[in-house]
Design goal:
The chain has 324 residues and is α/β, with parallel strands linked by helices. It contains 13 helices and six strands.
Length: 324
């Protein structure tokens, strides 16, 4: 199978994590403190940068850890000859990049469900998870130069857009001492309750701000991310004339703005597949900035529905096909 490079700019969800600069500053401060102490508690061993993951440990080892470091997933199998060339290269690069990403190796024979969830159709296949968002990187036995370029893009996106500066690596740390993901600051019950009350009162602007207040302190708070996505969706469709919106979308199938407005109405009305399908078709019809605008709105709608929904997983695969 020929390698197929996946551009980072085509699949990363910019709306997945708010207050990225604040999170970035906190992470950089922690790194600086660790450096001054010559390897602070919590630093990981180079051996801990490569982990074997199964279905039981996926949520903790991949999804949770992706809120502090990009996780690169290597789907492999013992019988796969190209995997025997690619896997050692990825392992070497994981150590060389010194905590800028974590490599998770998944044996497809033992973890068929994960293979299906990611839509893996052939191996080797390499994906990444950043702040809980999955994206394809490349498929096939890619060359080292291509892999380095992709990893550099991944690291840059994770830091600049999501504030993820990676793990602190201490060569003298004991292997297996990898710390658990940081417990989010909190509690945020009062702020989240304020957001719900604002929604109930029809104060969408107040709800949006309340959820942002939570995310300013805890960028990975899943409840706040979901609530913000929903409140912003309701805010967008507030006051819209459904008949006019749908009429314009029917008359202008390649118009990004018209299709985005109609997709928002589709989702609010419970027509999830229609909303996703509409925007995926629009991605195929548009180019440049318009295409990127449509893609970003689709990713925002994924947030509203929830990453665990099978319709989201199917639409992500369809989006990847449309983009590449």
């Amino acid at each position: 199978m020929q390698p197929r490079n996946m551009s980072m700019s085509g699949v990363v969800d910019l709306a997945a994590v708010k207050a990225a600069q604040e999170a970035k500053a906190k992470a950089e401060q922690a790194r600086a403190e660790a450096a001054r102490q010559g390897g602070a508690p919590g630093a990981v061993s180079p051996a801990d940068l490569v982990i074997d993951v199964d279905e039981a440990g996926f949520e903790h080892e991949v999804l949770q850890r992706s809120t502090e470091v990009p996780v690169v997933i290597d789907f492999w199998a013992e019988w796969c000859e190209p995997c025997k060339q690619l896997s050692p290269l990825l392992e070497r690069l994981a150590v060389e990049y010194s905590g800028r990403f974590l490599l998770a190796k998944i044996d497809v024979d033992a973890n068929q469900m994960l293979m299906q969830q990611f839509g893996v159709q052939g191996i080797p296949a390499v994906f990444a998870v950043v702040a809980g968002q999955a994206l394809p990187l490349f498929q096939g036995a890619a060359g080292e130069a291509q892999i380095r370029e992709t990893l550099d893009q991944l690291v840059a996106v994770a830091e600049q857009r999501f504030g993820l500066t990676g793990l602190t690596v201490d060569p003298d740390a004991e292997a297996g001492s990898r710390p658990a993901p940081a417990v989010p600051a909190g509690p945020y019950d009062a702020l989240l309750e304020a957001a719900v009350q604002a929604l109930d009162a029809g104060d969408l602007g107040g709800a949006v701000q309340a959820y942002k207040n939570v995310l300013n302190e805890d960028p990975a708070n899943s409840e706040a991310k979901l609530g913000l996505a929903q409140a912003e969706l309701l805010q967008r469709v507030q006051g819209a004339d459904p008949q006019q919106v749908r009429k314009e979308a029917a008359e202008k199938p390649a118009d990004a703005r018209a299709q985005i407005a109609a997709a928002d109405l589709d989702l609010v009305g419970g027509h999830v597949e229609d909303a996703f399908g509409r925007l995926i078709e629009t991605v195929q019809r548009t180019v440049g900035d318009e295409r990127d605008t449509v893609r970003l709105r689709l990713l925002e709608l994924f947030e509203v529905v929830g990453a665990e929904d099978p319709r989201v997983a199917a639409a992500r695969r369809a989006l990847a096909r449309a983009l590449f």
